[in-house]
Amino acid sequence: DAGVTQSPTHLIKTRGQQVTLRCSPKSGHDTVSWYQQALGQGPQFIFQYYEEEERQRGNFPDRFSGHQFPNYSSELNVNALLLGDSALYLCASTEAGEIGYTFGSGTRLTVV
Amino acid sequence: AQRVTQPEKLLSVFKGAPVELKCNYSYSGSPELFWYVQYSRQRLQLLLRHISRESIKGFTADLNKGETSFHLKKPFAQEEDSAMYYCALSGTSYGKLTFGQGTILTVHP
């Protein structure tokens, strides 16, 4: 089992552009969460998807949106990129009855 | 509101010495508490969770609801324990995780 896979691993975008990050959850997992980790900080919760619906959302602006597909994979979209969006974006998956999350390696986004 | 505080950004000990990584939390209900670890060039992984009351790699953590703490302890540190450690809290077993800022543990030979 490959665990949680994220793509791409690195990305450089220009201010104002839009970006899409992708995540495939661990086999058998149906719940996907996204986190933003700025340098030197702990991960911050962006949102969680379950059954293709956003179930919980953190304190992030509407520029951050997501989607979950029927196969449980997920996308994170960020519009109108700001320099401050530069961070490591982590995807984590779990399933009902399992305690704790499995994390991906992350996508390093750099906005210039 | 959920909050997790890890007061030490850096912690250095010598091999064989006891180690304690501190974690304090703020939560109005009954939280689920976790410790996650990130070794060099590896992904974040779950180390242990309070409800399991388990010992993983010699580490234990006790939830103290009176002091709202969940400190991570190991009686004899090993060099391979060097890593970034995050304390995290969730309101439910599958809910959002609120992380502390992390503690970098370095175990010197």
Question: How would you describe what is shown here?
Answer:
The complex is a heterodimer of chains A (112) and B (109). Chain A contains no helices and eleven strands. Chain A has 112 residues and is mostly beta strands. In chain A, the strands form two sheets. In chain A, strands 2, 4, 5, 6, 9, 10 and 11 form a seven-stranded mixed sheet that branches. A four-stranded antiparallel sheet of chain A has the order 1-3-8-7, with no helix packed on it. Chain A is globular, with a radius of gyration of 13 Å. The N and C termini of chain A lie far apart (36 Å). By secondary structure, chain B is mainly beta. Chain B has strands at residues 3-5, 10-14, 19-21, 24-26, 32-38, 45-49, 60-64, 69-74, 83-90, 98-99, 103-108. In chain B, the strands form three sheets. In chain B, strands 2, 5, 6, 9, 10 and 11 form a six-stranded mixed sheet that branches. Chain B has a three-stranded antiparallel sheet with strand order 3-8-7, with no helix packed on it. A two-stranded antiparallel sheet of chain B has the order 1-4. Chain B is globular and about 40 Å long. Chain A binds chain B through residues 3-4, 31, 33, 35, 40-45, 48, 56, 58, 90, 92, 94, 96-106, and chain B through 4, 32, 34, 36, 43-46, 49, 51-52, 86, 88, 93-102.
Strand runs of chain A, count: 11
SSE string of chain B, helix = H, strand = E?
Answer: EEEEEEEEEEE
Q: Give the C-alpha Rg of chain B.
A: 13 Å
- Whole-number mean pLDDT of chain B: 92
Q: SSE layout and pairings?
A:
The complex is a heterodimer of chains A (112) and B (109).
Chain A lengths: L4 E3 L2 E4 L5 E6 L6 E7 L6 E7 L2 E5 L6 E5 L5 E5 L8 E8 L7 E2 L3 E5 L1
Parallel strand pairs in A: 2-11
Antiparallel strand pairs in A: 1-3, 3-8, 4-5, 4-9, 5-6, 7-8, 9-10, 9-11
Chain B lengths: L2 E3 L4 E5 L4 E3 L2 E3 L5 E7 L6 E5 L10 E5 L4 E6 L8 E8 L7 E2 L3 E6 L1
Parallel strand pairs in B: 2-11
Antiparallel strand pairs in B: 1-4, 3-8, 5-6, 5-9, 7-8, 9-10, 9-11
